[in-house]
Design a protein that fits this description.
globular; alpha/beta; 7-stranded parallel sheet; single chain; 248 residues; Rossmann fold
């Protein structure tokens, strides 16, 4: 079955595990060419080997999204290899949960660097490419914590995800004239390494307890595929995916 995904070049950050890995595998099966970016090159290489063994097209690029020049290099590597970029999935993110009173300022800064600035660096790298092509699609990963503040513990995390929401909506308004689509995807409890990020013992225990209801990462991969496969004049602006039993 031919889809609007086949032949598209999709760049994915945070692609070495969880949602990013699952999305890369799913889109490759649907005929997309996937460019996987993350810090763990060995993990990326193993995933790429697996995808290509099944007849898919994939490329691994080492990238730390807190380094603007590395995010630029990721997009340029995709252009060099395949001549175009159709979609950027800004997926890299961390979730170290702890009360504000714990003063984990280093973790606040890391969240801002990865969850907000990492997305902005992705936009900065891909926007000129999309604008020139008069076509392109940003898929930015927010969270249900970007719709409703998750506290105690998630105040800063929520802040970063509210920022992703605001930036994405502004981006949509600014780029529509260039036929560029923007999708905000907000997962609830989805199985990934995100739940392992808390150094605060009590918060970590609470997060792991909460994540017992988590749904598989391919739930998000299918949602991303749905957004991409729409005709170019149809933009899926927001998708919220959470376990049926999740209240928050």
């Amino acid at each position: 079955m031919s889809t609007n995904i086949e032949g598209k070049v999709v760049v994915i950050t945070g692609a070495s595990s969880g949602l990013g890995e699952s999305t890369a595998r799913h889109l490759a099966e649907l005929g997309a060419t996937v460019v996987l970016g993350a810090r763990r090159k060995d993990r990326l290489d193993a995933i790429v080997k697996d995808i290509t063994a099944k007849g898919g097209k994939a490329l691994a690029v080492t990238v730390d999204v807190t380094k603007r020049e590395q995010v630029d290099a990721l997009i340029q590597a995709a252009l060099k290899a395949y001549g175009k970029v159709d979609v950027l999935v800004n997926n890299a993110g961390i979730m170290p949960i702890a009360p504000l009173a714990a003063l984990k300022v280093d973790e606040w800064e890391k969240m801002i660097d990865i969850n907000i600035k990492g997305v902005l660096y992705g936009i900065a790298a891909a926007l000129p490419v999309f604008t020139k092509a008069k076509s392109g699609h940003f898929i930015n990963l927010s969270s249900v914590a970007g719709i409703k503040v998750f506290a105690p513990g998630g105040s800063v995390y929520s802040g970063t995800k509210f920022a992703v929401h605001a930036i994405s909506e502004g981006l949509r308004m600014e780029t529509r004239k260039d036929n560029i689509r923007v999708t905000i995807l907000s997962p609830g409890a989805v199985d990934s390494e995100l739940k392992e990020g808390s150094s605060d013992a009590a918060a970590s225990q609470n997060v792991k307890e909460f994540y017992k209801i988590a749904i598989p990462a391919d739930s998000i991969a299918r949602a991303i595929a749905y957004a991409i496969e729409q005709p170019s004049d149809v933009e899926i602006d927001e998708i919220v995916v959470r376990p049926t039993v999740q209240e928050f």
